[in-house]
């Protein structure tokens, strides 16, 4: 039996609700982002529940050589970046084999812990990965809502 166009459309829609996310590139200079995944985040804005940790997976290609990399994460509220601590800022300990080589693709893996004391608000998560010259390998933003 051939699946109906409606069944195919529903299957595609269900797949689209999972990752990868729509994101805004906010200045990737030394790399190009291929995909951003936040898990679990079936819809946007991502609902981030207090006391939960979220998996981040960014696939990117490097345009440069770099001995290392360092992540910086911010919560952006009314165009002000508030630093957001992450457990492991060193990209070389987050799935990336260093030194980073030009033309290679990498999967950057990290965790985004949402602490219980965070306020319940809507904001933009901004995630940067800097190379050894403090230039952006990648920078992406997604809308989130922190909730209880």
UniProtKB/TrEMBL annotation:
Subcellular location: Secreted
Family matches, as CDD domains: Npc2_like (cd00916)
InterPro entries found in the cross-reference section: Ig_E-set, ML_dom, ML_Npc2-like, NPC2-like
Domain MD-2-related lipid-recognition positions: 23-144
Keywords linked to the UniProt accession: Disulfide bond, Secreted, Signal
SMART domains: ML (SM00737)
The keyword Disulfide bond belongs to this UniProt entry's keyword annotation: yes
GO molecular function annotations of the record: cholesterol binding
Protein family according to the UniProt entry: Belongs to the NPC2 family.
Matches recorded under PANTHER family: NIEMANN PICK TYPE C2 PROTEIN NPC2-RELATED, NPC INTRACELLULAR CHOLESTEROL TRANSPORTER 2
Listed name of the protein: NPC intracellular cholesterol transporter 2
Protein's organism: Chloropsis hardwickii
Gene that encodes the chain: Npc2
């Amino acid at each position: 039996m051939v699946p109906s166009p409606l069944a195919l459309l529903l299957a595609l829609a269900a797949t689209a609700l999972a990752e990868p996310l729509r994101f805004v590139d906010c200045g990737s200079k030394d790399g190009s982002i291929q995909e951003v995944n936040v898990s679990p985040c079936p819809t946007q804005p991502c609902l981030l529940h207090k006391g939960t940790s979220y998996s981040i997976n960014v696939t990117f290609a490097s345009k440069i050589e770099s001995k290392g990399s360092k992540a910086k994460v911010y919560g952006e509220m009314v165009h002000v970046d508030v630093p957001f601590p992450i457990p492991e800022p060193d990209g070389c300990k987050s799935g990336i084999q260093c030194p980073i080589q030009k033309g290679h693709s990498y999967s950057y893996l990290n965790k985004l812990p949402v602490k219980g004391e965070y306020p319940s608000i809507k904001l933009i998560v901004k995630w940067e990965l800097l190379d050894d010259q403090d230039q952006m390998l990648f920078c992406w933003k997604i809308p989130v809502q922190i909730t209880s």
